[in-house]
């Protein structure tokens, strides 16, 4: 199974000739009598049924697959093992496999940029009619913006060394055991720790309060002090709620309410991604006691299955993409006066992560649609430009009114985000301000100096023709620069 490890992009299972599971991330499928054929029939999944039948017949291949657990699309791969009738089945999430890495995101954006640039150049050189050029170039830039949004939305925000199965956990333990032996440290003691989050509430621009349950499993009679700390917490409430013996192990559970300070990067709003985390230490961390995920306590530990998250949890303005445990190695310039080893060594720390993305439709309706309306009205004003002074003054008055519409919406955006820098969506406002000024100046020049250079050529045709290509081109350039 080591060769089948998918590092969070999916999971693998082993079946026998009868379809029984020998290995599966969900232990219930191993202990119960339900076969892969039963699952395929109960979910009416013909692809899964055919693939499983081919697998036990010694064939290899792949089919498209939709997970009945997560509802995500991906691929179902199968290949036989040396034991007759046995096979390995692997489910790979399509988004994680294709767009889960920054380099793939950049390659996709580069390809789309090259294609759109080539198409626009072709239109400018080959197409003769002004309005056809305008339409094709504008559509090309809009498509570029849409493709970039799609790539960014489907790019994973998961960070750290993800622990999504017993296999990845065993790899981590073996690696850390070897490091401790090499550094002549005491043998690490691993404490299985699970977490269940029931509520998430934002308390300002940087503080998040989360509540739920956390539990740990100890060997019966263990002399290790039981408990954990949240080192990044501003406020912590930890109340023991149960202590039971399960399968010869002592399980201790606590209700927790913790307020942690998070660093949110709103610079890519409204396509920004949030990775909430809860950082955990054992009380005796200085004795080389390491917290490890209690994988066995979850039905499925694949990040997309949202293990450890309340099913009906409320997340205002955002939706949860994945949840997972991970390790980050942090180096401290101290040994806290008691820990063994020299200061500065890397210490693996357990994080429970909740990857979230903003609901794009909410931001689109609240901010982008008003700007689209303002820009459309400006274009109508530009088309109606005439030589009379009185109407030119009316154009200036209309532009002033539209300016106040945009500026008040802009102020509301800044206040809602509490942003310290410039966010992506603000560039749309900057472009709108530029267009307001440009239309006002153009209307004045056309009204009072109608025969002046480009303004007087064919009744002010150039500003009208290049209006939308200029706007969409600027927005595409900004989009590419921000998200690349």
TrEMBL record:
Gene3D superfamilies referenced in this protein's UniProt entry, alphabetically: PAS domain
UniProt KW Transmembrane helix keyword: yes
Highest rank taxon of the organism: Bacteria
Designated name of the protein: Uncharacterized protein
Transmembrane segments: 111-127, 133-153, 364-385, 391-413, 425-445, 465-483
Alphabetized UniProt keyword annotations: Membrane, Transmembrane, Transmembrane helix
KW Ribosomal protein (keyword) present: no
């Amino acid at each position: 199974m080591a060769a089948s490890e998918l590092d969070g992009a999916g999971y693998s299972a082993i079946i026998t000739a009868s379809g029984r599971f020998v290995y599966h991330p969900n232990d219930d499928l191993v202990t119960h009598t339900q076969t892969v054929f039963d699952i395929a029939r109960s979910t009416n999944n013909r692809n899964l049924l055919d693939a499983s039948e081919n697998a036990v017949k010694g064939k290899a291949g792949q089919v498209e697959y939709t997970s009945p657990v997560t509802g995500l699309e991906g691929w179902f791969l199968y290949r036989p093992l040396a034991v007759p009738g046995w096979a390995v089945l692997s489910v790979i999430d399509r988004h994680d496999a294709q767009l889960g890495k920054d380099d793939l995101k950049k390659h996709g954006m580069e390809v789309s940029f090259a294609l759109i640039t080539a198409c626009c150049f072709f239109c400018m050189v080959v197409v003769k009619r002004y309005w056809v050029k305008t339409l094709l170039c504008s559509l090309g830039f809009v498509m570029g913006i849409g493709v970039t949004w799609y790539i960014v939305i489907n790019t994973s925000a998961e960070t750290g060394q993800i622990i999504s199965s017993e296999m990845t956990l065993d790899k981590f333990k073996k690696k850390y055991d070897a490091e401790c032996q090499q550094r002549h440290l005491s043998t690490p003691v691993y404490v299985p720790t699970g977490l269940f989050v029931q509520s998430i509430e934002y308390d300002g621009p940087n503080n998040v309060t989360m509540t739920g349950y956390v539990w740990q499993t100890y060997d019966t009679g263990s002399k290790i002090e039981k408990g954990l700390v949240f080192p990044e917490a501003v406020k912590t409430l930890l109340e023991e709620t149960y202590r039971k013996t399960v399968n010869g192990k002592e399980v201790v559970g606590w209700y927790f309410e913790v307020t942690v300070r998070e660093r949110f990067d709103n610079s890519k709003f409204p396509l920004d991604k949030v990775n909430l985390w809860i950082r955990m230490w054992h009380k005796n961390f200085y004795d080389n006691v390491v917290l490890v995920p209690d994988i066995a306590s979850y039905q499925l530990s694949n990040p997309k299955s949202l293990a450890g998250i309340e099913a009906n949890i409320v997340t205002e303005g955002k939706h949860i993409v994945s949840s997972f445990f991970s390790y980050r190695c942090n180096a401290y310039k101290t040994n806290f006066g008691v820990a063994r080893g020299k200061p500065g060594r890397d210490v693996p720390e357990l994080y429970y992560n909740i990857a979230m993305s903003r609901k794009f439709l909410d931001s689109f309706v609240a901010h982008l649609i008003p700007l689209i309306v303002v820009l459309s009205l400006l274009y109508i004003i530009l088309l109606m430009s005439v030589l009379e002074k009185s109407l030119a003054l009316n154009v200036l008055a209309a532009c002033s009114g539209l300016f106040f519409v945009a500026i008040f919406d802009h102020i509301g955006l800044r206040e809602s985000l509490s942003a310290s820098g410039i966010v992506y969506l603000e560039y749309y406002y900057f472009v709108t301000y530029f267009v307001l000024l440009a239309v006002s100046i153009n209307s004045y020049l056309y009204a009072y100096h109608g025969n002046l250079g480009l303004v007087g050529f064919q009744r002010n045709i150039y500003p009208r023709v290049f209006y939308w290509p200029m706007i969409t081109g600027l927005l595409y350039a900004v989009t590419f620069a921000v998200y690349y």
